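Researcher: Before we compare anything, I want clean individual predictions. No alignment, no superposition, just each chain on its own. First chain goes here; please echo the sequence and then give the structure tokens.
Model: Echoing the first chain and its structure:
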Amino acid sequence: MRTRMLWAGLLLATLALTATGCRSGIVTYVVDGDTIDVDGRRVRFIGVDTPERGQCGYREAKQRVAQLVSRKRVDIVSVPGNTTDRYDRELGYVQLRGFDIGKVLIAEGLARARYDSNDGYPYHPRQADYRATDARTPNRCP
């Protein structure tokens, strides 16, 4: 009986990961504060916007992401119906040991909550949390 329950639990866990579109991989390159390469595939953080090259905060955001995830195994959690952008980058929440790296960047004032249904893009499940975190966090750049 215990063996059957163990297998049932493993099956349910596997199905949950498959349903959310979760995959794992090693971060091989940090492009900027909201884009990384994971096992050779470019991944854009969903719902997060960091400064572009030449803008205030660009270097700090890129360095923070590198500090957090470079050469580490991360989970990419995709949102059904919102899996790639117009540049064919994979979209997803980037997680390291359960921590949402996009939310960390917003909470540290290095990113803003953007590119969600409030901006004309598809809804993503964490957008209310991202927006609330952004509203109570001073951004490092005006």
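Researcher: Okay. Second chain, same rules.
Model: Second chain and its structure:
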Amino acid sequence: MRLTLHTDYALRALIYLGLRRGRRVSIREIAAAHRISENHLVKVVHNLGRGGFLETTRGKGGGLRLARAPEEIRIGDVVRFTEEDMALAACFQDPAQGGGCALIDACRLQSLLGEALGAFLAVLDRRTLADLLLSPNREAMAARLGLAPPEAASGPRPDATGTAQTGA
């Protein structure tokens, strides 16, 4: 499976906004930091705004910021929202739309691929944007994007497996 450029850019934009949390940023700023197409990013940002992942404000003092806390943005939700077609093979496509496979209902491939896709999404559902922003990755990502070191994360700390833990 390969994620589309749209999803890739969406995840990059969310990471950037997570690193710049508390301030508004421009599409131009994100595009320049990631060295990606500003025109394509405009479409991505518009879509993320429609999906409730970020807030967009036009005009002077406007810009982009996360609409929710990073802990509330599940990576699986972002992927499902930004990917138009999660069909891994022809057997997932609607025959009425010109797709499909002659072996439908006689082959186990659709079931196997459906299980694999479910496992893929289950892993992404266990992670949030906050997980992607944990130290020391946070500092390394900020440096690679040419940003000043971000403020120390005050959220959950990772355990030995990298999973965010809450409480003492």
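Researcher: What stands out in the second chain?
Model: The chain has a mean pLDDT of 84. Additionally, The first strand starts at residue 54 and ends at 57.
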